[in-house]
Design a protein that fits this description.
187 residues; mainly alpha; Double Clp-N motif; 10 helices; globular; repeat
Length: 187
Amino acid sequence: MFERFTKDARAVVLGAVEHAERGSAESVDDGHLLLALLDREASRGSFALATLGAARQRGAIEAALGGARRRGGLSQADTEALAGLGIDVDAIVSRVEEGHGEGALDGSRPRGKPGGGVGVRGWLDRVPFSREAKETLVKSLRIATARRDRRIGDEHILLALTVRPGVVAEVLADHGVTHAAVDRVLG
């Protein structure tokens, strides 16, 4: 499938790997794909993000993604739903971090462990893609196909992130980036 990706889409995928490695993540996830999209300039996806104001809100987006990672991947909606049942997720996270260290639930691995970053073998040593990230990339292919585009661009990855349920779609929507809005901007 990677051969069908445009130069910009490939840059997003490779950028996501770099974000995951820098953060010592166990796998590349949708949040890493979003951060890599925010890194891009002069592409269709970056144009949509800039037009919708998300590029100017990068700090807030990173903070929202970091908060979700700290909560073990729970979205704000999940946290609020649990609060409605009397479960204080922030208190639970704090207790876990007291016993196991800050960021104990964030999905990162300790630095220096096997699989931690690029080694002699290059690409094979890289962080694997999570199931959600793989599904997002497959969804981007389906979106490109439905739009009758021959190649998968970074705009298709962005559209896929807006329709897949989870933290990233919630964070994007909170910052004005919905599927309908991206679709409208891309025309």
